[in-house]
Design brief:
Blueprint: H1 18-40, H2 45-85, H3 89-106
Length: 107
Amino acid sequence: MDTVVEHAAEPRGYAGDKEAYLRRLKRIEGQVRGIARMVDEDQYCIDVLTQVSAVTKALHAVSLGLVQDHISHCVVSAAREADAAGDPRIVDAKVQEATDAIGRLIR
């Protein structure tokens, strides 16, 4: 089982795009509600699946953006910290964290 790692209250990699992420997620939430409504109204299976596919693609786009933000902010910050501390394990841990997250996304 994956564990959630607690992090200090530092700015998140997505902080600069937080409002855009929230807008996208609210749009996706609306799409999911629409899919539920389609099922409730006994819409044609393929039409429901088409909408599920659209939501899946939208979530993948959000995920990729978050991965990019994590690497460009958190991993780069860990690399700087590792250089300053002379401890490459700091960046190794952050890279492993990113790798694990990507692995969960592609399963």
